[in-house]
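Troubleshooting log. The previous run stalled partway through. Resubmitting the same three chains, unchanged.
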Amino acid sequence: MRIAIRHELAITPPEGATNAVMHLLLTPQSGPTQTVESWSVSTTGIGNAARFSDAFGNTVHLVNQARPDGEWKVSVTGVVNTIDRHGVLGRSHHGEPVPTIYKRATVLTKSPVTMWSKFRGSSESRLDVLHGLMARVGEVLGDGEGGQEQSQSEGRQSQSQGGESETANMVDLTHAFVGAARALDIPARYVTGYVAASEDNEASFHAWAEAYDDHLGWIGFDCLLQMCPAERHVRLAVGLDAVSTQPIRAVPEGDGLKQIAVSVEMAQ
Amino acid sequence: MGDTTPFDEMYNADGSVREPYSALAQWLDEQPDRGLSLMSSDAEAIFRRLGITFAVYGSDEGNEKLIPFDVIPRIISAMEWRRLSRGIEQRVRALNAFLYDIYHRQEIIKAGRIPEKLILQNSAFCPEMMGLEPARGVYAHIIGVDIVRTGPDDFYVLEDNLRTPSGVSYMLEDREAMMQLAPDLFQRCKVAPVENYPENLRRTLESVAPHNTSGSPTIAVLTPGIYNSAYFEHSFLADQMGAQLCEGPDLFVDGGRVYMRTTTGPERVDVIYRRIDDDYIDPLTFRPDSMLGVPGLFDAYRAGNVTLVNAPGTGIADDKAVYTYVPEIVEFYLGEKALLNNVPTHNCVDSDERAWVFDNLQDLVVKEVHGSGGYGMLIGPTSSKALREEFKKRIEARPDNYIVQPTLALSTCPTFVRSGIAPRHVDLRPYVLIGDEVRITPGGLTRVALKKGSLVVNSSQGGGTKDTWVLEE
Amino acid sequence: MRMLGRTAQHLFWLSRYVERAENMARLLDVGYRMSLTARREGGASEHMLSMMQAAEVEEAFAAKYDQADLDSVVHFMMFDPDNPSSVFSCLLAARTNARSVRTAITLDMWESLNSAWLTFSQIKPRDVKGAKLLGVLQWVKQLSHEFRGALLGTKLRDDGYCFSQVGNFIERADNTARILDMKYYVLLPRAKMIGGDLDIQQWTLILRAASAHRSYRHVYHDRYKAHNIADFLILRPEMPRSLVYCAQMIEETLGGLTKLYGAKQECHEAAAELAAMVANNSMDKIFADGLHDFLTEFLARNYRVTETLSDSYNFY
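Second attempt completed without errors. Output:
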């Protein structure tokens, strides 16, 4: 599927800052499930940016601006061709760390024992365990079908609020899955990306999880949408948790990151 | 290692003088009454003049203290040093190979030679370092190895310091002072020089400059500032090397490169000898509340535009729990037996082992895994019953936070104290530089516990220092 | 090796604080002497207040104390950490700046400051009374001279020297201008040609505060006259605390930086504008245009030199 993406974000550094720096994780890479046809990141200072690979194999831009004045906007546009492989990415690629480092627990990925204890010592295959875990995380933390219908029927006025809580929920679900998998000694990572609209969801900046199976390699699990990412998902960055995959980290960050607009559309 | 009389480095059990100390013994005999006492006060004047002080945490600013200096040098024979330095070199090579592996393929974990959890869940492990290729493959360029001696041939490594080991300025100033105080003694002994440490440090730092450095690399020492307890050392080393002493706000990142703000504009920095802990070097990647660091510094490092010395994440190799595995590490990477012994170390996680520890606590030393400076330690033989009970509770609550070692009978060295010359316990911290080659300064810093019978040599707890002589053949 | 902007900044402020400690000691000395001879009721505290006005700390004082009695003022000016210009604060700031640039100053400079600080920390505030107070104030002035001696005698004539010197003279110019401004009205030309007792007392205060009461005679061979006093402290190039001397030194020292760095900066323009106020000027003209306005403008231009200096050489 050919997907066109536009994403606009911004931070506003506090007045009087002498030098503001941004760490951008906004560049997707081609892989088994997607081929990047075109991509561009534009922002003040991008011409002078350092571009390098981070510890998790992501492409990073380090951008800076001396004496920033007001809002600092970042716009991303590009076209990515996706391939449906039922979420299976396969073994790690060159530039990616050994999968075992994704067993490291972080503050954000602490998952309660009740979430994963029933899978401990399970005789099922790892793949089945992971599917079971995705369902369990959805049951315990998800809104369920009813919840989603309700939030849709509340009308437009509450849309932005609904969007925020949905994002928070998505982050929690993904952390819960990642944390539970790690507690079960399965390497699992946090993935950011985009998802195109469907009957069940709007187009959005999105997050899901990937877990490692010794035979199949990395497999995606989207706990919010309760599915393995297929051709509507575009992978952007991976890491230990939501903090290590933030699309923009900035110092000084002022009021924090603002999402201005995102559109993910099927292209011709 | 029992409770016998500790080994004395100067005198044999029968009272005769050990060979390396013969010239010193004679010289001591020749000193007039009050000679040493005068030397001691001269030494204090020299140190105060130079302003060599350290701040004790928790005490008032402006209340800097002098570390007591003992005028009787500690002497190591050429043969003893050869053995020691071979062992040290082997150890630091193995530890750097370990760091490279841990931050790449992690073969040692796959081979089951070290527990996965011990590395991956360790707070000293720095996942952000994965896959990074440091210049010359070196992670820890400056290492201080703490060594204790318990007999003529028995040396043990107590701790490897791979983060930002301090104290080297005392090694240099102690030598400087000693040469002023007793030049005649130097004429009688051939003492290996330590003065070239700053030059060697500079060479080491230059040798690990990024590939894209043009011309001779610009070096900066990054200090947390004047309120840090080791600030004197930071400014001393920068001065001696001819490097710029910078605080975080003096540096900034532009276009992925690091610059310092000078009176005539920005100047590119190639190598940073940072004396700020990992957590604080860059608020963009590590602790966001850090005011000491440089935003974007770590990214500039990852982009290959600056070298950080030591690399972040080296602490995983001097973690007290990983320490137990160093002999294993030496064998795994170098295929040879470790030349220097570890102190036998017990953990408290295993309940049987814990029970044994509790039964024998009065003979043991308990250390916090992440403690330093002699704080949070229990020394069994000199502890009260109440304190031992307290430690049992703490261990019970967090068994993985403690390691336990036998109480070592640290060697003693004659030391000038109020009552005259008396034996006091000492340890040794040699300093190693690793860049284009491994450079070990002969000797190092000898720390001495000035209180009679005390085994705690830390300066924050009443320890002093001695000039350390390695004799040349 | 190029100098860090921060190093330049520390050297600049280090000198300023040593100079300020000296000036504060001198002001307190004058205030104290005047208060001893005040005849009117409340006269003593009036002198103290105008002295603090010259030191620009009267607001900070008022925020803490109700009354300007001798003990409070002495404590406030000498030992109070809440007073950013107290001798205590100045010496602490000087030493802190020095510690930050230990390798950029000479051992002699460091030792003079370090031992001064150690000595000062031993002084018990409650012992500093009467004759003891004057002794301590004298000692503060001396330590400033000692530091300056070490600077002049041992420091390389490099950029660091220039930043130290500029700091010294900007602080001094500021101080002299403030002393004049505090009592400018007693210097104004008046119909009555001969000053009364009260005038003489005020003039003495001004001269003493600038350490000029003895040298005045050497220059003018005359009794105290308002016109001469103003001339002495503003336009006399041989007077080392006069505005013209300080402005010249600032300009000259900044000229040294141009030579070293090979470029003129905004601060050079600011220094030239400062010097232009006092070069080729006359007291008659200054009085005609208004002494107070003149001093206000001078202080503003002097402040601008500091500001542009920070920008030009990347202080932060």
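Takeaways: Chain A touches chain C at residues 18 (CB under 8 Å). The helical segments of chain A are 113-116, 126-141, 144-153, 159-183.
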